[in-house]
Each structure stands twice: as C-alpha cells, then as structure tokens.
Amino acid sequence: MNKTPHVAVVGATGAVGVEMIKTLEKRKFPVGKLTLLASARSVGKKLKFRGEETAVKELTKDSFKGIDIALFSAGGSISKEFAPIAAKAGCVVIDNSSAFRMDESVPLVVPEINAGDVKLHKGIIANPNCTTAITLMALYPLHQAFKVKRIFASSYQAVSGTGAKAIEELERQVGEVVAGKPVTKEVYPHQIAFNVLPHVDSFLDSGYTKEEMKMQNEGRKIMHHSSFRASVTCVRVPVYRAHSVAVSAEFEKPVSVETARAALSKAPGIDVVDAPEKKEYPLPLYVAEKYNCQVGRIRMDCALENGLCFWVVGDQLLKGAALNAVQIAEELLKAAA
User: What is the CATH number of the domain that holds 267?
Assistant: First the structure.
C-alpha cells in the first residue's frame, strides 16, 4: 500500500460521501490524490478538499485504475456491481452499504473493537450499520468486562440516516405544519415532523425489520460472539442528525454501575456523560458532528439478572458511516507499514 494513497470516494455528493471528504481532510489522512465518483447526473459538480475544488467524475467500470483505496457510499446495488470490479483492479474497497456485511469472506470492522480483522480482507472491507456501530461503542467495553448475553434495545434514529432528501422532508414538513398547510410526503410513508415512525428499513416475515436484525447479526460478527442475542425496535424520530439507542443488557458476570463506568471511561471513542442530577446526559443535538459517541443514564436494570441500562448517542454520518470508514483506511495504512 502506497504511503500517500490515491483515494476515491464513490457516492461523493451524498450525505455520507460529503462527510467522508471532510473526515479525510480533518484527520489529515495522507491522501496522495483524491478522485470523486458519482452517477452521471452529478458529473462536473465541484467539492472542496484541502482548499481546492475537485470535480466529480462519472462512476464507470474503468474508474479504479491506479486507485489504492475506495470509500463506497452509493447504496447496496452500486456496491454489489462496482466493489468487486474495484477489488479486481487492485483497489481496497471500504463499503458503507449492507451489500457485503454478512459475507463470510469480508471483514466487518469497527476499529475500536476488531481492528485486527482488517488484515483478513480480500479486497473488500465492510462498514457496519450505523445503529449497530453506535450501540457497540458502548456495549463492547462492557462485554469485555462482563460478557454480554443479550440486549433489548430501542433506537431513536435521525432522518439523515435516510439521506439528504429526508432532511429536506423534515424541514419542509415542519414549515407546512407551522403555516397550517397540508403536509406533503415523499420519503417516508407517514409524516415525520412532530411524529415518530416505528419503521426503519423493510419488514421481514418475523415482524422485525432488516435494520432491527442487523444489531444481532452484525454484532455477532464484529464482537466475535456467536451466541449474542438482540431484540430491537428501530424508530425514526424528527431529529436531523445523530442516532440515540436505549439499551438493556444482560451479562454473564455480576455488574455494578461503578464497574461499568470504569470500563466505559477507559474505552476509546466514547465519552461518559452521566450526571442526571445536573441534567447531563447524551443528547443528539450536542453529539451531532462529534467523532466520539457518548453514553449516559447508566443504571442497574431492575428487570434483568446482571442487567444494566444505558443510553448511547452517536453521529450516524460520522461514527456510523464516514468516520468509521476513514478509521478503517487508517488501519489499512498501519497494517501495510
């Protein structure tokens, strides 16, 4: 791997693509050359990187010649089509979609948890689901200390998880409600302004949604914990940015609030914000645009044996997507050094 790699961002004009470009710059990733790729309709659009404007090129089968690392965030169908082509061209793909997460030959990585898995790649590395990544940032340090058996969780997911059009929809609907106009819907099946939708992703025969099952399936793979169980309800809320998750976790070993706090305060990538008496707890409004996730409301679970409740919040465009992808790229460079 080149010490100053040629990096491509696929889906460069989308909400996550834009964050990937910003994160590469902010973290001073040693980009030798940056190529921005997107669909034909975005060609010629200019995006800033290190003070210079870079024009977006069309993503084609020939886009990956000479590229070392490609950060993909253009949806599952694009990833399925183009990631294998990029890998064949000698490029390492870090894919943000769900296309390869459960593929046994593809590592699924959260660098604070299983950075070593990066070395097992065969040209493609998967970025986990945003809600899963944010939850595991708090759950994994506790798992290391007390061995998690199962969790019950509810997510409070921001509209930016659906993309830029969903942010516009929430803005537009708030304006329509305030002005007393009829509410128009394009992105979500129901009004999202002043409402919550217990529906993220498509429904499975079990009654769970795909998003809800990602926590168990991806959690098992990332934590190397094949018997981990997670019963989750994912809810879309009228928040612009940053996902929140309420978790009740049951552990094999006895747990206390003090020992849990100690484990969490040592863990990388997460800050303990937990002073309810001062009304201090993680809030999506204040976690937005921050790299670290935050955990609070830590208390004994009164309904579970060796149980702990906590509330974890993270910016899903960053730790849930762009930041995690860039951190994986940093691990690739370390592994090659």
Answer: 3.30.360.10
The beta-strand segments (E) located in 146-257 are: 148-157, 229-236, 243-251
**CA dist list (Å): 204 to 97, 132, 135:** 19, 18, 22
Give the position of tokens 């759950």.
139
Residues 48 and 89 in one domain: yes
| Tokens read off for 3 | 């010490």
> Per the residue annotation, which of 130, 234, 293, 309 is the catalytic one?
130
Domain CATH code at residue 78: 3.40.50.720
Mean pLDDT per 10-residue segment, the chain (337 residues): 94 94 98 97 95 96 97 95 97 97 98 98 97 98 98 97 92 98 98 98 98 98 98 98 98 98 98 98 98 98 97 97 98 91
CB atoms near residue 202 (< 10 Å): 8
Query: Kind and range of the H or E element at 333?
Result: helix 323-336
Tell me the residue range of the domain where 218 lies: 132-316
- Among 6, 91, 243, 293, the active-site one is 243
The two structure tokens encoding residue 22:
């910003």
Taking the complete model, does pTM exceed 0.85, yes or no?
yes
Task: Of 151, 118, 107, 160, give the one whose Cα is nearest residue 132.
Answer: 151
- Catalytic residue list contains 243: yes
Taking Cα atoms as reference points, which of 102, 109, 129 lies closest to residue 320?
129
- Give the closest residue to 208 by CA, choosing from 165, 152, 247: 152
- Annotate 166-198 with DSSP letters as a single string: HHHHHHHHHHHHHTTPPPP-SSSSS--TT--BS
**Residue 148 covered by a domain:** yes
The CA distance from 320 to 291, in Å, is: 10
Residue type, 267: A
Let me know if 234 is a catalytic residue: no
